[in-house]
């Protein structure tokens, strides 16, 4: 991912947004006033709270934002929120956001050349910003391009820039308001070097970390496609054993989420932004197979409208769908980058887990009224089985003209 303030644009300095759809992937229509939509940008964050997606921050062409936008998945409407105490929430990119109780918690990030280490909270009921206390003498310091996740009543922060040796993991206790450096019980199994641009998610008692970049003192970059697990209960890291093929390419600035025990990875870039990815990968962390080895699965889908190759985008999961927003995509030349403010929805349950009969049943149920036509009893039972599923899916399916 190129630094937004260093990107050269085409002559008219316009921010180009490319829209693609993939089969069973919907690019949500831009409805309402354009002023209510987030601007095209990258390195912003997105969280899900109730039935809405909240976008905060990001940057484009050397300009960072501190605006808060929400998208209502029921009404399909964007809203630009007028927040209270917004002066304490500096413009930023490459920060982290999580949801705790009824608030969006923001840590770190950067605005142009200033890297932050503040901890902020936005109440998602009254949209008032506040500074969360950081008591005690320990603090993770300023950082960007890190990753964050919530487990119980603690938030975990991993690595980022500036790099730390050895790779560090911090926790913030929302009750005691104290930061604490997590001292692991062993040196083996954890990432060997400090990463940035990686991703992290939580499942049960474990944090899962994937991808990321390491920048050497010489400026050379190397990229990771390893999956690591940190078990909170045992305080131990593990390098997750996965089959050697297929496997996502090494990358950073991708997005990762978890849904029903499956980790989902999309996009990212590598080779100093010479290669961007548009692939979508799954790995079921509940299914170890033989010998405790997990297997990645690539989701292959047809169609011409799909999220194009991108990095620096953000994501969140709501129900059975992955939402992807924004990011940067390669242009016709290395010095040209396209920014996006499109929101995509990818139904996860229609991708790789269902057998062919179930997939056919779901799609036929959308077009066939079982009560109005005569069909074989076996086919009718399949369609009737999925009528109730379709009622729920219609609440989440966005139609296009």
From TrEMBL:
<keyword id="KW-0880">Kelch repeat</keyword>
<dbReference type="InterPro" id="IPR015915">
    <property type="entry name" value="Kelch-typ_b-propeller"/>
</dbReference>
<protein>
    <recommendedName>
        <fullName>Kelch repeat protein</fullName>
    </recommendedName>
</protein>
<keyword id="KW-0677">Repeat</keyword>
<dbReference type="Pfam" id="PF24681">
    <property type="entry name" value="Kelch_KLHDC2_KLHL20_DRC7"/>
</dbReference>
